[in-house]
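User: I'm preparing a small set of examples for a lab meeting where we compare how different chains pack in three dimensions. I only have the primary sequence for this one, and I'd like the structure in token form so I can line it up with the others. Please keep the answer compact; I'll paste it straight into my notes.
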Amino acid sequence: MTEPSTDTRSAAKWMFILAWVCLFGLLVIIFGDLLEQQINPNQAPVSQRIGEQTEIRLEQNRQGHYVVSGAINEQPVVFLVDTGATSVAVPAHLADKLGLIRGRSGLASTANGTVRIFLTEIDKLSIGTIDLFNVEANVNPGMQSDHILLGMSALKQLEFTQRGNTLILRTL
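Assistant: Understood. Below is the structure token output for the 172-residue chain.
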């Protein structure tokens, strides 16, 4: 019996490496999607009409927060519902991508202390088929997250109720 040539062994070695790289890439994609689903279980919020109102039910994530995919001015974003925030708070790096205009500056008290913010207005904020217009917001250069805090300037335009691990948002 003859021994395989060096070229054959080299090709087999590269095929083996390529197979492991493909497997690793597939695992990253699968587990990345699972992790994102745990962080944001409301990636595709379902709207439901109940009489004259539109309702969306949000599921709590593993950390006990309500995170939901939506849009600002038709551009996809991820919101973190924050009833303790006076207005919608947009990280500066996202505000630039969303084309939000920074207005008058001011100071805001946050969980991280007092920070300088810039007032802005969101023309259209969407969650599922619920659209809110002319929503007061602020641009916060201190926020590093890719989540936008969905504060009371938006939530006051909705009726919201928590039942167990579900947050129900309903148009007025």
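A couple of notes for your slides: The chain has two domains: 1-39, 47-171. The first helix runs from residue 6 to 39.

User: Perfect, thanks.
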